[in-house]
Design goal:
With about 130 residues, the chain is of the alpha+beta class. The protein has 2 helices and 10 strands, in the order H-E-E-E-E-E-E-E-E-E-E-H. A hairpin with a 4-residue loop joins strand 3 and strand 4.
Length: about 130
């Protein structure tokens, strides 16, 4: 094979890889709004807002919204808060290392967003941690 077809083939494979990788990158869990890491032992309070959203107050000031990939049975109307763990250091830097269990059911986080002061103020009091 001459160099030109090899270059074209390599470029085609690279374009295919980018195209195939884009939906995966878009679906990747994320931390945004200056999503600094936090330790689970810094979480002061947790509240849920429906079957796919959890709000966590961290160190008395920051609030993070944890969006779940699918509905989490038992999250809505449950008097017991979700049980969260993060391996291996108990530090949460994104949804990939955060495990959430509600009444023994695993609930997979999709995104963790650190809310701004304005977003925190706009939360209904019933879901504000």
């Amino acid at each position: 094979m001459s160099p030109i077809p090899r270059i074209a083939a390599a470029a085609g494979l690279a374009a295919l890889a980018l195209t195939l990788g884009r939906p995966l990158a878009d679906a990747e869990p994320a931390v945004s709004h200056g999503g600094a890491c936090f330790y689970l032992n810094q979480v002061d309070q947790i509240r849920s807002d429906g079957p796919r959203t959890i709000y966590a107050r961290v160190s008395g000031r920051s609030v993070y919204r944890i969006d779940l990939l699918t509905d989490c049975p038992g999250l809505e109307g449950n008097s017991r808060p979700p049980v969260m763990s993060a391996e291996p250091t108990n530090q949460v830097c994104g949804p990939m290392n955060l495990d959430i269990h509600v009444e023994g059911e695993m609930c997979q986080p999709k995104a963790i967003v650190r809310l701004t002061d304005a977003e925190i103020a706009a939360l209904p009091k019933s879901v504000r941690p």
